[in-house]
User: What shape does this take?
Amino acid sequence: MVQVIKLGVKRPVTRPLLPDPAPRKVRYTIISADDHLMEPPHAFEGRLPRKLQDQAPHVVETEEGHQVWVLEGTPYFQSGFQAVAGRAWEDRRVEPARFEDIRPGCYLIEDRIRDMDLNGVWASLNFPSGATGFGGTVFSETKDPELGLACVRAWNDWLFEEWYSAHPDRIIPLGLTYLRDPEKGAEEIRRNAKRGFKAVTMPEQPHRVGLPPVFNAYWEPIVRACAETQTVLSLHVGSAGFPNLPPESPVLELGSTMFQAEAFTTCAQWLWSAWPARYPDLKLTLSEGGIGWVASLIDRLENLTSRSGYASGWPDKQTRPAEVLKRNFWFTMIDDPSTVSTRHAIGIDHILAESDYPHGDGTWPDTQPVMEKLLAGVPDDDAWKITHENAAKLYRHPLPKPDSPHAAGLRR
Assistant: This one.
């Protein structure tokens, strides 16, 4: 029997999905360090312990015609949370309400590989979406902690078995960790690292979702596990929600405008948490925050160190804060034409490309022409690093073989 609930929100009227675009010409080999997936309805089936399987996250129908993820009786996001790729421009402000409203590449791996080929993207790292909450927060908020941990493991098993293993050369596996108990979260990071996971995500500012701030020793097991397993700690702007906006703000417009400011804030917090100083092998990425703010943060850090004296609390007396920033952090960009000129102030080896498929900021199916325009006038050595070489090194991911169409953009 299909469970039916009532949300009181009418299903929006939308246009059909647009036809498939023509494949874009490959000018660069592209590794996207920030894309997203939508979990299919069957993602958790058979992946939880038997006693918990009936409580697994599942998709239900609403009386209004939506499909919604439900856990412990609570409805969360719709199936197509922010999945607007391939939809008519007039519909991009309307949240998809059913799986048929979104491209199958959002939740079926073979269709995703096809969409990557249409877009000219060789490899992709995918963040979770509606079923988990950005950063996996939903599973750490369950009334039953055992159920929450089982959901984290089940999601990671689904990603490994169905999303990654089918195309290990095309997908960079990113996992969830358990936020309610960092020791168990660290165990999950280590379990995943042994089977090839290269990254893990969590809310970029955990104090905003009711968890201890990044400065708290609470997080050390997770930080240590990432550093010791070479697991990249991937922080996505917005995974802890929009900032505290003034009353009467246009929430979507102002909140999304402030992504770069939020990335600046997140980076500064993680830097001054001193985790990167204490764990020199810790690698952190800031996704969907662009790069326009990074050089100014470096300038500010140097001012604090050299002139104002406000950096006296920095624990590493051998390595300056700005040096640690340039050593331990990587930054992704979708389209930063005004500030790509700051790439060497940032560190050319620490800039990554992203397409943000299938979200509104994303460049699908035009990531190739967007990158070509963005990097016009940039020397090939720099362009190769930004589009794929930096990501391949950071995530220890293979580049395409010479006979692949995606090899057209490799260094010769």
Notes: The first strand starts at residue 4 and ends at 5.
